[in-house]
Amino acid sequence: MKPTLLVLAAGMGSRYGGLKQMDGVGPNGETIIDYSIYDAVQAGFGKVVYIVRESFKADMEAHVKAKYAGVKTVDGTPLEFVFVTQELDKIPSRFTLNPERVKPWGTAHAVLMAKDVINEPFAVINGDDYYGKESFKILADWCRAHEGAKGQYCIVGFELDNTLSENGSVSRGICSYDKAGQLTDIAEHLNIAKEADGIVYGDNSVNGKNHVVLEAKALCSMNMWGFTPDYFALSEEIFSDFLEKNINEPKKEFYIPFAVDVLIKGGKASCEVLSTPSRWFGVTYKEDRPGVVAKFAELAAKGVYPSPLY
């Protein structure tokens, strides 16, 4: 069994000021997605499903045809690609879309768009994040080990200090888990940064404390998940409940951590926390881009990746 990689690429990168998914940051114009696909293929993934918006679907498809022509999986078969769109009106027919709604419905809604094209354990990643080779291998191994399973999910957690930006604060969900390594909670923290004293701080208003010290090695979510395919039907039910309460809220979004939390606390699923030694990086701010370009140049110079990549 070859797992599927689901790439969330519908976001337009408002803070960055453009479509990050199409931005060439490698030595030969490679995008961050290009590196993720390369690592995923090496790890044993056999199909890639892109979640995009209709407005740039054609550009993404053209990019894929140009970049990945002839790419083979580990057993020599062609790598399969599928494109699915996320739009505001893709909601159950009994709901009426609020005309004030302009934001997408969120990451968990985006995943739901792939329910008709994925029937095997699958991974979910952001299209504009670099996760590292080790992370994809960890996730591919988990997917293969859970073929035929139900209600067993995972999250790849990154050490917090491996995810910070030098150009501004970030938001991260800090994972809590039990002695068996099963996720119990993801606590969202805002304005996370390493300050002058070398300590990482962040704002957590949930527990009544604003500026708190955070453990630099704490595992945080970078939206890298593994799911068995039963997740689609379960999360679809949660999305309907979400819409019952929020259909007229123009800014509320349906996020993966929320859906997973409901399933865990409802006893319908468990979620294993997997740690990775990889260092995450991405273009959160425009000022991050030169550093990302330098990192990919360094990886190519060291032979970690071929250059050109494809």
Write up this protein.
- The protein has 310 residues and is α/β, with parallel strands linked by helices.
- It has one domain (4-301): Spore Coat Polysaccharide Biosynthesis Protein SpsA, Chain A.
- It has seven helices and 13 strands.
- It has helices at residues 32-43, 54-68, 107-112, 133-145, 231-246, 256-265, 289-301; strands at 4-8, 47-52, 80-85, 122-126, 129-130, 152-159, 170-177, 183-194, 200-204, 209-214, 219-227, 270-276, 281-282.
- Strand 7 (170-177) and strand 8 form a beta hairpin.
Write the layout of secondary structure elements.
Layout: E1 4-8, H1 32-43, E2 47-52, H2 54-68, E3 80-85, H3 107-112, E4 122-126, E5 129-130, H4 133-145, E6 152-159, E7 170-177, E8 183-194, E9 200-204, E10 209-214, E11 219-227, H5 231-246, H6 256-265, E12 270-276, E13 281-282, H7 289-301
Parallel strand pairs: 1-2, 1-4, 2-3, 6-12
Antiparallel strand pairs: 4-11, 5-13, 6-11, 7-8, 7-11, 8-9, 9-10
Helix pairs in contact: 1-4, 5-6
Brief write-up:
The protein is α/β, with parallel strands linked by helices and 310 residues long.
